[in-house]
Amino acid sequence: MAGDDVVERLDGLVTEQDGFFTSAQAMDAGYTPTDIGAHVDDGSWTRVETDLLRLTEWPHHDLEEYSKWCAWLGPTAVVSHQSAAELHGLGSLHPQFVHIRVSGTARAHDRRLAVHRGRLVGADIEFTGTFRLTTPTRTVLDLAAGGISQFTLDEVVGDGLMLGRLTVDELFEQAVECGDRVAERVEMALR
Q1: Which residue in 4, 48, 56, 99 is a FRET match for 119, CA 20 to 30 A apart?
Q2: CA–CA gap between residue 165 and residue 118 (Å, rounded)
Q3: How far is the C-alpha of 163 from the C-alpha of 186, rounded, in Å?
Q4: How far apart are CA 142 and CA 101, in angstroms?
Q5: What pLDDT, on a 0 to 100 scale, did the predictor assign at position 8?
Q6: CA of residue 77 relative to chain centroid, distance
Q7: Between the CA atoms of 124, 130, 131 and 136, what dihedral angle is there, to the nearest 10 degrees?
């Protein structure tokens, strides 16, 4: 079985990921495939998805689905689009899928996910403690670039302004940087 230093390396990561970790992360920390199998067999770790494990005793909560998918998809995974809007309390989109943005070649073969590809800068991301999500401004820009209706975008922007999570100047300034279509849709939502 793994030594104390190996356990400590994995514990830090597990805390950041709400008790979730991949087999690759466990092996990077120093666990062997035999160690991983032993922990699953003795019940201290639970296999929750292909290549995704969780500490069995980790407390459950309403938002763990987001932590799970971000851990599974890797360090560039960020909750985005409709899912981020829902978490920020913007609009009433009620997404059917968990929307996550990744950069690079993260694997994403699951019908429960809507995976969007593209890089984000640090200013576009908030950290909740166990997963990352796009800021309200980045969320609006993503939705404006996507296929939601103008009515729904208007509702999202209105809620963000009312809650104090968006400012007109910042939103419009960043929308202009995203191209004409996004800028036009955001401008209509700000009227």
Answers
A1: 48
A2: 23
A3: 17
A4: 10
A5: 82
A6: 5
A7: -50
Residue count (the chain): 191
Q: In this structure, what token pair is assigned to residue 5?
A: 């230093």
* CA 153 to each of CA 12, 68, 106, 185, 189: distance values in angstroms, whole numbers, following the listed order: 39, 28, 29, 8, 7
Report field, pTM of the whole predicted structure over 0.70: yes
DSSP result, the chain: ---HHHHHHHHHHHHHTTTEEEHHHHHHHT--HHHHHHHHHTTSEEEEETTEEEETTSPP-TTHHHHHHHHHH-TT-EE-HHHHHHHHT-S----SSEEEEE-TT-----TTEEEEE----GGGEEE-SS-EEE-HHHHHHHHHHTT--HHHHHHHHHHHHHTTS--HHHHHHHHHHT-HHHHHHHHHHH-
First to last CA, the chain: 62
Q: How many CA atoms lie within 13 A of 59 on its CB side?
A: 4
Residue 99 CA to residue 97 CA, distance in Å, equals 6
Give the chain's residues under pLDDT 50. none
